[in-house]
Every structure is written in C-alpha cells, then in structure tokens.
Amino acid sequence: MLQYAFQRVLLALAIIFVAISALYTIMITLPGDPTTILLGPRATPELRAAFRANMGLDDPVLVQIVNFWGRILGGDMGTDYNRNRPVAEAVFNALPHTMALVFCAIFWSAALGIMLGAFSADNRNSWLDRISGILSVGFIAAPSFVVALYSLLLFGVILRWFPTIGAGESGDLGSRLFHLALPSFAIGLAWVGYIARIVRAAMLETLGENYIRTARAFGLPRRMVIYQYALRVAILPAVQVLGVGIGGMLSSAVFAEIVFSRPGIGSLIYESVSGRNYPVVMGAMLVAIGFFVTCALIADLVNAALDPRQRVT
Amino acid sequence: MSNQKTFSFVPDPTRRQVFAGAAALSAAAMFPIAAWADGSRLNVRTYLEPDDYDPLDASGFLEELLYGCIYRKLIQYVPGQEWDWQLDLAESMTQSSPTTITFTLKEGQMWSDGFGEITAEDVKFSMDRHMVEANNSRIKPDLGPFSHVEVTGRYAGIIHMDRPFAPIWTIALPYLAGTVICKAAVEAAGGKITTAVPPAVCGPYRVVEHRLGERWVLERNPDFSGAPAAFERVDLIVVVDESAAEIAKDAGDVDFTSIGAGSVQRLRDNPPIGAQMNVHPALFYHWVGLNIQNPKFEDIRVRQAIMYAIDVPSILQAAFFDVAEASTGIIAPGLIGHRPATLIPPQADFARARALLDAAGIDRLALNVDVLNNVTHTTTAQVMQAMMAQAGIDLNITVHESGSFWSLGVAADGDRWKDLELTIKRFSMTPDPYYATAWFVSDQIGDWNWEQFSNAEFDQLHDAALSEGDPARRDEMYRHMQDLMEQSGGYRFLTHGVTANLFADSIVPATRPDGQPLLQFFRRA
C-alpha cells in the first residue's frame, strides 16, 4: 500500500507540473498585451515597457516557466499587479470560499442523493421509485446556470428567503451559511440525481448479496438490514465518484461565483484571465489544480484501501 | 406493505406538526430579508474591483468611486446635469497666470488616524509624485504639462505648469490625479499605499474591510471635517454581470446599480416598486473604425462607400434598444467641442454607397470587422452585416474576448494591427475634449489609433487646443478636428450610449451629468 501511495503521489505531482507548465505556455502565447490591459489606456509606452520587463515578459517562454517554478518552490507566488499585493493573499483569501461552496454542495447533495437512492431501491418498481427516477434524471438534466438563475429569482427576488449576492459577513458563521444556500443548491442539484442513480443501482446489487439474505434469514429488522448493512456498502461507488466529481464542482463553482457575485477561485481566475493578470491566473490555477489532484488522489487511496485489487499496477 | 415501507422512511407528522410547519413557512415568507436591512446602510454595485488605494495605480472611474468616498481634492465635480466644479479642500483657487494656479486650503481639515491637519505639503506630495518617473504613475498624462506645486505657506501653494493646460480644471484637479493623500502616512508606509486598509483618509468614509473579490466595507469617518456622511456604512459590492445586479436590486441586496440599456424600456413600461430609474447621456463614444492604411481602403471612395452603407439608426434600435441618441463625433453633448451634426447623415444611403463603389471599380467588397464579445457590439456588427450587403459589401464578423481584442491594434503585440479592416470600439471619456482627441494623433498609431489616421493639422490642433484659454475658440478647434476625422473616411460615429441607474427610493443619489455616481454626495430620502 505504501508503494502504491508513493507512486500515486509522484503521479499527482507530475500532473500538476505538466498541467501548470502547459497552461503557462498557452497563456503567454495568447494574443493580448497584459500591459495594455493592466495599466489602462493612460499608461505611457515607457511605463508599459518597464512593466513588461518587470513581469519578465520579454524573456523566452522556457525561461519564464523555469522562473515561475523557481519562485513557486521558493514559496513565492508573485505579485498581483492590479492590487500590488502578494498573489498568495488573493488566492488564499478566495480558496476558503470556493472550498466552502464545493463541500457544502457535496454535503447536501450526497445526503439527499443517498437518501433518494436508498429510498428508490427500497421501493423498487413502485410509483415512488418512478417519481424518484424522474426527479433524479431531471436534476441531472437541469443545467446549473438555469437552476442558479431560477433559484435566484424564486428564493431571492420573489420570496426573499435568501440573499442573492456575496458571501456573508466576516466572522458570522450563520451569515456565511445563509449566503451559501442558493449557490450550493445551484451546483449541487445535478449531483443529487447522479448520486441517487448510483446508490440505487449499487443498492439493488447489494440487496441480492448472500450476506444480506443471511441477515434477513436471521430475522434482523428490515430497516436495519437495508440502511445499516446494505447502504454502507452501496454508498462506496458514490463516494468514489464524488472524489473525482470535485473537479466538475470546481467548474460549476466558477459560474456560481459569478452569478451570485461570490468571491472564490473561480471568479478570481475569470477576472484575472480577462485582465491578463498572469501571476494571479497562475497562482489560482496552481491551487485549483492542486486541489483537484489532491481530491482525486485521496479518492484513489481510499479506493485502494477498500479494494486491494486496485493496488496492483 | 408498500405504505408501511414508505412511512419507515418518510416522516409521519402529526396534524399539529403540519400546522406548525405551515405557520413557520408563512412567517418566513412574510419576513423578507430586505426588511432586516438597516436604512443607514448603502449598498452600491460596482462591476469590477477598484485596484488599490494609491492614485499612482488608478486607471479609471472604479478607483474614482472609492477615492471619492475616502479622499478629497482641491476641487470636486458638482452633482447635477451640468459639468462644473466646486471647491472642496480649497478655500480659493485662482488662475493667477496662464501657467499657474494659486490655492489656499481651508484650515482645520483633518486626516484620520491621528495624522493631523491637511496642509499644502500634502497637496504638493500628492501631485508631484505622479511626475517622478520611478513611481510609474498610470495617470501621469492626465496632468499634462504640470510641473510642480510650490508651497507658499502652511495652507497655501501655487500649481505650476510648463505651459497653459486647459484640462487642468476639468480632468487633472477634480478627477483621479487631483486626489490628495497624506504625506506623512504614505511616507511611513514606504512611499506607496499597498496595505489592505489605507493608512489615513480624509473623506466622509473610511475603509473598514476589503473582502477581496467581493466588497469594500466603508464606515462613516469620525475624523471627517465636513458634515457627517449620510450613511453609517457603505458597501461597494462587486457584481460583474448587469442582469445579476438588477436581480440583486430587486432582491433588496443592492440599493444603487447601473443597468443595461436593454432594461431601460422595460422598466419605463413597468416601473419597479420601491425603486426609481434615471437615464443619463454617457460620455463614452462608440464608433466603427476603418484602418485607412489597409490597401483595400486606399481609394477614399471605398472608405466613403462603407460609411454611407452603415445605418446608424438601425444599429441604435437593435444594439442600444432605441434609448441612445446618434452621436456626432467623439465629444458628447454638454462638452466643449461637441458638433451639432455629422458630415455624413446617420441614415445609410445605399444607392450612394453603391455608386461610390462602382466609381472605384469594385463590384463586391469582402470585409472583416473585429468586435469585442459583448452583446452590444456583436449586435452592431450583425446589423452592419445585414445593411452593408445591400450596398454590395460582404461583411465577415470576428469576435474576440477582451484581452485579445484590445491588443489587435497594438504594434507591440504582433503585426495584426497592420491588417485590420473594420473594428467596432468604445472608448471611455472624461469631461474634457482633449481626452477624446488624444487617441487619434499620429503618435498613437500602433497603440490606440487603430484607424492609423494621420493628419498634421489634427495633430497641430490637438496641441494648440490644450493651451487655448478661450472656450469659444477651443470649441471651434475640437469641432474642426472631428470634421477632419470624418473626412478621412475612417470613422462612422455611432453613439455615446446612456448610463441608466436603478436605485431604491429610500436614497437620493448624486451623479455627474454622465450618470456616474458621486457616492460622497448620496443621502437618505
């Protein structure tokens, strides 16, 4: 297991290195002079030239990439040229908001999806199962931006139950959670459907296993057999999917952060790419990719711990 | 059996629980979040974050919005319908000679955080630092031929210029470059303000918190020397999307926001409850530019044919929702240099366009227009495409994201600028005509002058108008400069657009004539 874990960690680092280096190359070869955009129209040509030199944009691409990794390994993400502050400050201010959004969405969608899936399996082929199936597929099919806009209009504008913008007051957990409600609903709804379908399928398979039949034969209560013995095994595929699904959630978070005007890695990347604020783009992407790769790595390791066959490479 | 299973999973509420639940839901619906909002708080939407608190790094109105709340200037714009300025920190301001302005500060104006009184030394420090090369001021050009400030007393000084500079009263002093910052505080901070909260402010509000990527939280500045600010707290909230901002206004999360032109007619037809809208002519200018140096346009008849084939009213109807007026040039109504009419009428004349192409020996002309990926300009391009086909011009539309688009005409970013054909652009503007004409002088070719318009008379007039003290003469010069632009066949002026603001009727907003908010003057209704 240790050898397997070591290999996966090495692979994760390689993925981060390749992804970031490729991204850097693409970014700086894109048309769009960052000095024109960053400094505004009134900047003099001399100022723009000095700025280019300061950013290292006159160096060859390879040199820039080496310099970038050199700075990163030295613990320096660079300077945010818009705000004249360290990139790390911008990125690590944004990261908790995105993580809160993603984990909140995962938490509620997993809870509801597992319940719905178990309920469907428990009532298979009944009209309740069919309704649950329709709901699940409907949730999967509904694009998150449509869900976001309609939930915004319904719960924010018409009913005024939830705030429509922002991330809540600093230091006020209640306000923070309150502001998470609509965005996490928007990006989590599709996952309810996914998880419900996965859990239902796994549950049906598990319910046919010998140990479940044995438990029933011993006269254990039905609820105990289903929700304690069968469900415990049936949710494993859902947990593995969720590990990888965090990447998808990060993509949805970009959209949710813009619609709900929330701070976060997604909106930071969007704003920085538009403004050609290269250091911030790279810092934010490094953290986002690192976050995604770490989640996938954890999913792999959990998978391997639960199923020894996975360790054979 | 089935029912039993269902009830094992679904809660089985008692009648009392059902009633309690229904009552709780009804109560929740009756208590909208907005009802909890405190009337002494003002939430204002901005579409992006201002950069920071240091005027050296300022580049536009976003910073001005923030600086207006926390800093002061010698003079400020007057809210209302006419462009004018009023005294702020200054007790008196006199143009003592064509190249000098004498000022005296009001006594007893204080900095926050114990930094003492505002003196002429602060004014000198604030303005002179823009001229120091190493400081890399982004707005140095706004100060034109400004030389230095001479301090003649604790509260008095003289602003020196190398030559007369008319825009000093309209741009330099009442806008970003005129912002006064605290010399002692900035020097103590190392010469530049890079902190999360500015070390000293003097405006009606102070910064309490900057939530990166989300909002600025401002509170009433207890050390402000004027009348206390109208609101205890002002939040500048970043909402990128205009539709999202409108929804936030409807939800009561924002008290003041600009809205898109597309919403104006709808809100006029169905006025929102508890809110008002005002619409102002903007200062921006939108135009279709033509790269005069492109070999396709060597013959001026071809350029003129293109101009005649663009129907401005149709564009205004489709892309600006019929709420904006056709412009006559790059200088908006109300400013010196505004032209009463264009040389070529805004309505297209397809027969004339066709005749000009025939005279140039062209049967069909295939062109490309580069546009930014916003709805307004892509719609403009589509209308042009449909209209120009009637004159025998086939228009291909190339859409770019902002970073790519704004480098199209920049020589430092490759050779694309040489091959440009048509572009649709919008430039921002300040209330002085010099700011508009500055981009079209010959020196700007390969930078912002994407039409590659080069005219010696225009360049000479641009320089001369800067120093011209007679407003009537200046007005005439700028009008003629726009005539020259239009005669080149490189420009089809579209509109200045509008600034539409939606705001809660619990506040009384204050805006410049172009509709941009002056938050420091906002008050409660």
Automatic annotation (TrEMBL), chain B:
<dbReference type="GO" id="GO:0030288">
    <property type="term" value="C:outer membrane-bounded periplasmic space"/>
</dbReference>
<dbReference type="GO" id="GO:0015833">
    <property type="term" value="P:peptide transport"/>
</dbReference>
<dbReference type="InterPro" id="IPR000914">
    <property type="entry name" value="SBP_5_dom"/>
</dbReference>
<keyword id="KW-0732">Signal</keyword>
<keyword id="KW-0813">Transport</keyword>
<feature type="domain" description="Solute-binding protein family 5">
    <location>
        <begin position="87"/>
        <end position="443"/>
    </location>
</feature>
<comment type="similarity">
    <text>Belongs to the bacterial solute-binding protein 5 family.</text>
</comment>
<dbReference type="GO" id="GO:0043190">
    <property type="term" value="C:ATP-binding cassette (ABC) transporter complex"/>
</dbReference>
<dbReference type="InterPro" id="IPR030678">
    <property type="entry name" value="Peptide/Ni-bd"/>
</dbReference>
<dbReference type="InterPro" id="IPR039424">
    <property type="entry name" value="SBP_5"/>
</dbReference>
<dbReference type="Pfam" id="PF00496">
    <property type="entry name" value="SBP_bac_5"/>
</dbReference>
<dbReference type="InterPro" id="IPR006311">
    <property type="entry name" value="TAT_signal"/>
</dbReference>
<protein>
    <submittedName>
        <fullName>Glutathione-binding protein GsiB</fullName>
    </submittedName>
</protein>
<dbReference type="GO" id="GO:1904680">
    <property type="term" value="F:peptide transmembrane transporter activity"/>
</dbReference>
